[in-house]
Write a structure and sequence with these properties.
Distance between the termini: 29 Å
Organism: Mycobacterium yunnanensis
CATH superfamily of the largest domain: Butyryl-CoA Dehydrogenase, subunit A, domain 2
InterPro entries: Acyl-CoA_Oxase/DH_mid-dom_sf, AcylCo_DH-like_C, AcylCo_DH/oxidase_C, AcylCoA_DH/ox_N, AcylCoA_DH/ox_N_sf, AcylCoA_DH/oxidase_NM_dom_sf
CATH architecture of the largest domain: Beta Barrel
Pfam families: Acyl-CoA_dh_1 (PF00441), Acyl-CoA_dh_N (PF02771)
Number of strands: 9
Cofactor: FAD
Radius of gyration: 21 Å
Order of helices and strands: HHHHHEEEEEEEHEEHHHH
Protein name: Acyl-CoA/acyl-ACP dehydrogenase
Length: about 325
Amino acid sequence: MTSDFAEIHDELRAVARKILGSAGAAADWTRFADAGWLGMEVDDALGGAGATFVETAVVLEEVGRAAAPSRYLGTVLAVGALIELAPNASRDELLSAVGAGTTTAALVTSPFRLRRNGSDGRLSGRAEFVPDAVGADRVLVLADDDGTSVLVDATGLTVTAHPLLDETRSLGVVSADDLAVDAASVWRLDADAVTRLRDRAAVAVACDSLGIGEAMLAATVEYAAVRQQFGRPIGSFQAVKHSCADMLVRLSVARVLVDAAVARVADGVDASVAASMAKSYACEAAVDVAGKAMQLHGGIGYTWESGLHVYLKRAALNRAQFGAPGEHRQRLARRYG
């Protein structure tokens, strides 16, 4: 991947690991803002870093590596939607506030329907599994306005929490039933923006899953080096070596696919193929690697104390979000069929 900020990626990773701390521990949200992560892609004229999705992807991987509970995914998706819009006073004000961390935001990628009523409109629809919608100050909604894609900064939406086994994530059900919408809160998107935003969401989750998989491999190799059986470390056994090698191969392939998808998203070009390849492979690999990590840890791997269950549950949720692997493979098949 090419980026004007490539030379700081190692430092960015190191800072992220320090801030995020131990696995599964919630990091102070203000530290995300202070580190500049929320405004990574916000133009420097609006108080952001003026970086790209490549740098955002670095943080997304580290959030996954730490299985950190946070609102970061929802913020990344909302910022992505706002930077798709043409600059205007209200959009710039909101983008600056989200980037600074003074306003929390979420994005509904499932399309709602906007029906015009003179200069204003009525919004209807329902979306499940919306990241970080619960408690968000602003919820942005992708909607269809008589064949035109728009982004609606809606107030008065019904948002309820969706129960989850993965306690590191927050998903909400967002609905609107003929909700009155002010014309000033409706922004037009170009024809391909909705596809770009959905691909961005899929790649963001793939980055998180890549971090999960790499954390599980590192934990397993470390455990295999110290756990003794029959008078020697279990890492010396051929079966354990081969299993760790298989995990490494899967994650190495996932790394190549995710990096390619991140680069295309950052460049603003068609990322549909790369996103589907990365999402389907990386998210499935993370589940497999986390499951194998539990097996190689033996009995302790299945206990609450080991903490491995946190990663497995997060990986399983990632696999389902923004398209299961089978859906993305069908998308690829239709593309080349």
